């Protein structure tokens, strides 16, 4: 299999940026997007500055992609926002924004990608979830609920896209030092790490490893799965 | 861009031929201008219908007609617009004029 066409949301920083660098190093063509510009510069990297919840902007992105590439091989729904707050103190606007970014945007990117993936010999959709779903930590109800929706979506979408030769899986990282976790109190992070079988911070390479497994052509029978890092779940 | 019902019909029939390429000999769709597509008279299941509709959407885009076939209206209609070739052609024709 030659270079793949990989679309990753949320590549401005963190896990998304690391994934983009990894697949560029592997020789793939990578299209990334995020609200901020990217510091990544590579002849096979295209960055599209957009808000993933802006349906019009996403529609334009896919129109451009269809003109550039005949097929799309990989979609990684990585863009996400966190909200750490008690339910009673969370404004409804915040809950809506979290659901829009973490679930609705992933749904929309998946919906559009299916159309381009049907001609790929080994199309893969990977969603980024979190160990906050199985751990059910207080203070993370909205964030975990949005990712829980994404996990259920992953499992059902897997059945629907299987006839097209597309797999759909998710990986749930435990805490990784990124901007998303920078605002989480140390005590909260320690609670999560204490609940893990492997009691340490993960690194982006741990996420890349699981995604690489999902993306292998030999993983055509692996679909509808959610893999948590650190032995959670 | 206005497209004729004949153009829409040809896109639908071409999508049905493409669908048949991925189906075994026993479950081939009848490809004709009055053939059933989805329902008791057809062997196409719901996931097969999705693939067919995506092919129809692509075929329509290729001739300059950008429509989304499976919106709320299609699902909520008492008689599915996807039941046969004439009903699908009529449905696309309505959407393309909006």
Describe the fold and architecture.
Chain A has helices at residues 14-25, 55-68, 92-117, 132-135, 141-161, 179-182, 186-195, 204-215, and strands at residues 5-9, 29-34, 45-49, 74-77, 123-128, 166-172, 226-228. Chain A has 233 residues and is of the alpha/beta class. Chain A has one domain (5-231): NAD(P)-binding Rossmann-like Domain (Rossmann fold), CATH 3.40.50.720. A seven-stranded parallel beta sheet of chain A has the order 3-2-1-4-5-6-7, with helices on both faces. In chain A, 41% of the residues are buried. The radius of gyration of chain B is 13 Å and the shape is globular. Chain B contains four helices and no strands. Chain B is 52% helix and 0% strand. The chains are: A alpha/beta (233), B mainly alpha (98). The interface between A and B is small, with 6 and 7 residues.
Structural topology:
The complex is a heterodimer of chains A (233) and B (98).
Chain A: E1 5-9, H1 14-25, E2 29-34, E3 45-49, H2 55-68, E4 74-77, H3 92-117, E5 123-128, H4 132-135, H5 141-161, E6 166-172, H6 179-182, H7 186-195, H8 204-215, E7 226-228
Parallel strand pairs in A: 1-2, 1-4, 2-3, 4-5, 5-6, 6-7
Helix pairs in contact in A: 1-8, 2-3, 3-5
Chain B: H1 5-21, H2 46-62, H3 72-76, H4 85-96
Helix pairs in contact in B: 1-2, 1-4
Counting DSSP E segments of at least 2 residues, the number of strands of chain B comes to 0
Biggest chain-to-chain interface with counts: A-B, 6 and 7 residues
CATH architecture of chain A: 3-Layer(aba) Sandwich
The residue-averaged pLDDT of chain B reads 91
Taken together, the total number of domains of chain B comes to: 1
Radius of gyration of chain B using CA atoms only? 13 Å
Principal-axis shape of chain B equals globular
Strand content of chain B: under 5%
Query: What is the CATH class name of chain A?
Result: Alpha Beta
**Strand order, biggest sheet of chain A?**
3-2-1-4-5-6-7
Fraction of residues of chain A in helices? 40-55%
């Amino acid at each position: 299999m030659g270079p793949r066409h990989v679309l990753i949301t949320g590549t401005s920083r963190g896990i998304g940026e690391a994934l983009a660098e990894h697949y560029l190093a592997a020789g793939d063509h990578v299209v990334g997007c995020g609200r901020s510009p990217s510091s990544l510069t590579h002849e096979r990297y295209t960055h599209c500055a957009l808000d993933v919840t802006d349906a019009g902007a996403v529609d334009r992105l896919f129109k451009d992609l269809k003109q550039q590439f005949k097929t799309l091989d990989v979609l990684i729904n990585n863009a996400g926002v966190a909200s750490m707050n008690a339910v009673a103190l969370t404004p409804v606007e915040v809950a809506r924004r979290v659901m829009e970014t973490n679930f609705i945007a992933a749904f929309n990117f998946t919906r559009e990608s299916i159309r381009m993936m049907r001609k790929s010999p080994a199309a893969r959709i990977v969603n980024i979830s979190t160990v906050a779903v199985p751990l059910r930590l207080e203070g993370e109800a909205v964030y975990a609920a949005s990712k829980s929706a994404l996990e259920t979506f992953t499992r059902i979408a897997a059945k629907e896209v299987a006839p097209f030769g597309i797999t759909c899986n998710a990986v749930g990282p435990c805490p990784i030092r990124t901007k998303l976790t920078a605002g989480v109190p140390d005590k909260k992070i320690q609670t999560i790490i204490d609940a893990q079988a492997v009691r340490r911070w993960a690194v982006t390479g741990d996420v890349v490893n699981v995604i690489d497994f999902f993306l292998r052509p030999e993983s055509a029978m692996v679909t509808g799965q959610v893999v948590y890092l650190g032995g959670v779940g | 861009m206005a497209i004729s019902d004949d153009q829409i019909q040809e896109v639908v029939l071409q999508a049905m031929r493409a669908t048949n390429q991925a189906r075994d000999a026993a479950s081939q769709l009848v490809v004709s201008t009055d053939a059933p597509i989805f329902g008791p008279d057809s062997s196409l299941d719901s996931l097969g219908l999705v693939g067919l509709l995506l092919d129809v959407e692509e075929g329509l885009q290729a001739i300059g007609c950008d429509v989304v076939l499976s919106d709320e209206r299609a699902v909520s209609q008492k008689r599915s617009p996807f039941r046969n070739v004439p009903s699908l052609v009529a449905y696309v024709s309505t959407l393309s004029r909006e």
